[in-house]
Design brief:
With 294 residues, the chain is α/β, with parallel strands linked by helices. The chain has two domains: 7-196 and 238-282, P-loop containing nucleotide triphosphate hydrolases (Rossmann fold); 202-234, no CATH class. 47% of the residues lie in helices and 8% in strands. The chain contains 15 helices and five strands. The protein has helices at residues 17-25, 44-47, 51-56, 83-90, 103-116, 124-130, 133-136, 140-151, 161-166, 168-178, 204-211, 213-222, 225-234, 245-266, 276-282, and strands at 7-11, 30-32, 66-70, 95-100, 156-160. The chain has a five-stranded parallel β-sheet with strand order 2-3-1-4-5, sandwiched between helices. The radius of gyration is 20 Å and the shape is globular. The two termini are 39 Å apart.
Length: 294
């Protein structure tokens, strides 16, 4: 039996959406897509596969209360401009969860991810001017506004990475309440998901050797762990990327303008890069009752 999703976790990239996806999948009555990021409504090549392919990701013989998927490409404007219209066409009544994080920390994490995939090879200070998406994906009001305009703010739940880590059970309960889940959810202890600093640089031949079961067994039995660890380090980023003071000031200026608007939407005065983490960890945040400036 194919199910239509009741909700989508739409981003943001590098904000623990994989962890949230897994947590919801572990709750009784949730059906989460086995393919964590179908990217169906964003990527043209995925959308071309048709709605039947998309719904096949939710095939199940069991009865489920809620059905969802997680695709961070859905909040990657302007890279994927048709996303909103496609969701409106096929899932007009769905709800959305948007996870945010300190915008500069999110940008750095994305840079490491793109470096490991071989998409970016230049220093981070050069990358922020060459790859505008590093900045755009941290401009949260830019990503949220189209959802507000098309679906209304009541259908979008703001979640913050920092608070989800420090108030795990409470945030899971808030998310499930937003989804009208009738049971009591329980946060489960999981291994860290998709940690950027642990990512090895993509290499097709090495990845083939690592993934083949027979070669993996030979490697583990014949090659000392200390040597395997040393080799792994050669494929990971040795030093955390450092923004120059000038670029740090530039990014703070860009993101502070965006965060000021986000703060007004959430009822937080003067939200900025300096107070972001303390502000979002302090209390549960939802859209303020005042009229949103969209």
């Amino acid at each position: 039996m194919s199910n239509y999703p009741n909700f989508l976790i739409v981003g943001a990239m590098k904000c623990a959406t994989s962890t949230l996806h897994e947590q919801l999948a572990l709750q009784p009555g949730f059906l989460m897509s086995e393919l964590k990021e179908p990217n169906f409504f964003s990527n043209d090549e995925q959308y071309a596969k048709g709605m039947s392919w998309y719904l096949s990701n939710f095939d199940s013989s069991d009865d489920y209360i809620l059905c969802g998927e997680s695709s961070t490409h859905y909040t990657k404007m302007p890279t994927y401009p048709q996303t909103i219209a496609r969701i409106q066409q096929h899932l007009p009544d769905t709800k959305f969860i948007y996870v945010m994080r300190h915008p500069i920390k999110r940008l750095i994490s994305q840079y490491i991810h793109e470096w490991s995939m071989g998409f970016i090879s230049v220093d981070i200070n050069q990358a922020i001017s060459q790859y505008p998406e590093l900045i755009d994906y941290s401009r949260y009001t830019m990503q949220l506004q189209p959802y507000f305009e098309q679906f209304g703010r009541d259908r979008v739940l703001p979640v913050f990475f920092e608070r989800m880590l420090s108030h795990q059970q409470a945030e899971l309960e808030r998310i499930c309440s937003f989804l009208d889940y009738p049971q009591q959810p329980t946060w489960q202890e999981l291994d860290a998901q998709n940690v950027s600093s642990d990512r090895m640089k993509h290499n097709p031949l090495r990845d083939l050797i690592v993934e083949l079961p027979i070669l993996r067994e030979l490697r583990q039995n014949l090659i000392p762990k200390s040597w395997r660890t040393w080799v792994r380090k050669q494929w990971t980023m040795q030093q955390k990327p450092e923004l120059s003071p000038e670029n740090l000031l530039l990014l703070e200026k860009i993101f502070n303008e965006d965060l000021a608007v986000l703060g007004s939407w959430l009822g937080i005065d003067e939200l900025n890069c300096d107070n972001f983490i303390a502000s979002v960890q302090a209390e549960e945040l939802d859209w303020a009752t005042v009229t949103l400036r969209v």
